[in-house]
Amino acid sequence: MNVLVTGNLGYVGAVLVPYLRARHPGSRIVCYDTGYFAHCITSRSRAPESYADLQYFGDIRDLPDALIAGTDAIVQLSAISNDPIGNDYEKVTIEINETASLDLARRARDAGVRSFVFASSCSAYGFAEGDARRESDALNPLTAYARSKVGTERGLAGLQNGEMTITALRFATACGMSPRLRLDLVLNDFVACALSSGEITVLSDGSPWRPLIDVSDMARAIDWAIQRDRSAGGPFVAVNAGSNAWNYQVRDLAQAVADAIPGTKVSINRDAPPDKRSYRVNFDLFAELAQGYTPTVTLTESIERLVAGMQELGFADANFRNSQFMRLQTIRKHRSDGLLDADLRWTN
């Protein structure tokens, strides 16, 4: 099997590529990434990209046809990865997350690629009161990031995809330890606060719901999607990727971290205005389709892995929200150093 992974030098790709190498030792894995976060290594072991057969550097908006030829499966991870960056760079977010993804899918179809996997997001549901959201429920994207995911899904659903199987994985909010750790994710942020200052400050009133998934389980979901047969979901499927057991209110996540790290205090801003990004998600379809690949990591295990990994790094930075652990801060640093232009293209 020949696999092309785009955006591998990020939080998810750093876990995915070693996972695919272990699961499919005879496969040829080619990776392509622009390198915004290549230097953000948070592991003392082997560099995750070294598990690939080839690593190319380039903008997803310029991916050459030669890398698509002869490929069996493409995993499209390349993206402006969260709301804060999307808010600052809305036009670029649409260009990279949506326009480039759909262009890649069309070229993949024309080149005879068998499987196309798109990393979508449950943030597409936006503010959703009431029952846990199913794939058939209305979408309500509230940010440029979420809108880009919805736009790509709709474009993929309307693509005349020939023999290519397309899977859009609507991932729950990512969490857990990675060789390129992000701390701009709710659970990871809480663990960082507990380790660095002994106090978790919840900026909202703690009531919003978040579905979560450990990054190692994201890799397992992608592995399933790469191999997915059309009999499991059809030529195109958009499926919530996560577990019903992982729907949590933010205050409960904070308390779980405090329970795991003795001495941690939890401070909740009960006077905060309501956080509109609140949604519970139903993952029954994923459990039905992806048998053997559904999440296995528990919340406790995810917290334990974060604590162990960050302690190994000697993490104690109470000012981490201004560090490279935050993807927006890294982009801003590249911009201030003159390395990226306003379209987030390298200047030299």
TrEMBL record:
<feature type="domain" description="NAD-dependent epimerase/dehydratase">
    <location>
        <begin position="3"/>
        <end position="232"/>
    </location>
</feature>
<dbReference type="InterPro" id="IPR036291">
    <property type="entry name" value="NAD(P)-bd_dom_sf"/>
</dbReference>
<dbReference type="Pfam" id="PF01370">
    <property type="entry name" value="Epimerase"/>
</dbReference>
<dbReference type="InterPro" id="IPR001509">
    <property type="entry name" value="Epimerase_deHydtase"/>
</dbReference>
<dbReference type="InterPro" id="IPR050177">
    <property type="entry name" value="Lipid_A_modif_metabolic_enz"/>
</dbReference>
<protein>
    <submittedName>
        <fullName>NAD-dependent epimerase/dehydratase</fullName>
    </submittedName>
</protein>
